[in-house]
């Protein structure tokens, strides 16, 4: 009987210890959104389109620069 109580105590203590570790690895919603914004393929594609638009705008503005000949 004493062995069963000792075994039960060990099992309960290890289960409670493992539950405290899992709380630190919970992903918060804002962290989740950060990962989505950083690594999702559609977001990467949208960022490339924005960069392309900014490059086109810079090229268009450069057409109005004075030229020395």
Supply the number of structural domains.
1
Straight-line N-to-C gap: 101 Å
Q: So what's the overall shape?
A: rod-shaped
Residue share in helices? over 70%
User: What's the number of extended β-strand segments?
Assistant: 0
Q: What is the alpha-carbon Rg in Å?
A: 29 Å
List the uncertain runs. Answer: none
The ordered H/E elements are: HHH
Q: Given the helix and strand composition, which structural class is it?
A: mainly alpha
Estimate the mean pLDDT confidence: 85
Percent strand equals under 5%
- Biggest sheet record: none
With helices defined by DSSP (H or I, 4 residues minimum), what is the helix count? Answer: 3
Helix-strand blueprint:
Blueprint: H1 2-24, H2 29-39, H3 41-62
Structural account:
The protein contains 3 helices and no strands. With 69 residues, the chain is mostly helical. The chain has one domain (2-62). The termini are far apart. The model has no long low-confidence stretch (mean pLDDT 85).
Question: In summary, what is this structure?
Answer:
This protein has 69 residues and is mostly helical. It has 3 helices and no strands.
Descriptive key words:
69 residues; mainly alpha; single chain; 3 helices
């Amino acid at each position: 009987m004493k062995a069963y109580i000792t075994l039960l105590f060990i099992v309960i203590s290890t289960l409670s210890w493992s539950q405290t570790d899992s709380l630190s690895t919970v992903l918060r919603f804002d962290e989740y959104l950060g990962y989505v914004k950083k690594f999702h393929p559609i977001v990467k594609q949208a960022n490339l389109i924005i960069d392309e638009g900014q490059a086109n705008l810079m090229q268009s503005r450069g057409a109005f620069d004075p030229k020395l000949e």
